[in-house]
Amino acid sequence: MHLPHGVQMADGSRGIHVLKILKSIYGQKQADRVWYNHLKEGLLRIAFTQLAIDECVFYVDKTMFLCYIDDGIFALTDQEDIDQAIKDLTNDDFYIEDKGDIEDYLGMTIEKLSDGRIRIAQLQIIQLIIDEVCILPGLKEKGSLASATRLLTRELDAPKFDGRFHYR
What pLDDT, in 10s, does the model give residues 19-72? Predict the structure, then answer.
C-alpha cells in the first residue's frame, strides 16, 4: 500500500513508511465480522442478551432483535419498546433507519394476519421451484434425468432409525 496523496511525512520521504490501519475498511473480507462485533457490543451495552443457539438473535424482556449482515429487525408486541431500543442505539452512535412495519425481508414476504398470527412465505423461491420441476398443468415436461444421476436406495446394513435427526 502506498501513502495516500496529500499525506506528508515529517522527514519528507514517502517510500520507507508503513501505515497501520486502525479500523477495518469497508469491502475487506473481515468487514462484515468487524461490523457484527461492533453491533453486538452496542446491543450488549444496552442490556440485550445474545441467544446461545443463534448468535444473530438478541433479546431483552419482550424485545427481540434479529440481524443478518447489515440488516436488522426488531420484533415484539409493544411499539414503545422498539422506539426505546432504537433511541438507545442511536444514542450509542448507531445510525438506524426505521422503515416501519416489515413486509419483505431477505426474499421473504411477511404478513400480519387479522388474528395476530404472522405469515411468512418465500413466493419467489417457491415459484422458481415450481417452474424448475414443471408441476403445474400446461407446463412442458423436462427431459429425462441426466445420465450421471444416481438413484438413492436404502442401506440394508444401516442401523434402525431411532426417531431422532442428528443434523448437528
Answer: 777 766 666 777 788 888 888 998 999 889 999 888 999 998 888 888 887 788
| CA angle centred on 94, ends 90 and 97, rounded to 5° | 75
- DSSP-assigned beta bridge partners for residue 74: 65
CA atoms within 13 A on the CB side of 76: 19
Per the confidence metrics, is the pTM higher than 0.70?
Answer: no
Buried b (16+ CB within 10 A) or exposed e, 147-156: eeeeeeeeee
Q: Closest Cα partner for 56 from 44, 68, 42, 73?
A: 68
Closest to 105 (Cα-Cα) out of 126, 86, 122:
122
- Greatest alpha-carbon pair distance for the chain in Å reads 78
SS3 57: strand
The residue type at 9: M
- What span, in angstroms and rounded, lies between the C-alpha atoms of 137 and 123? 19
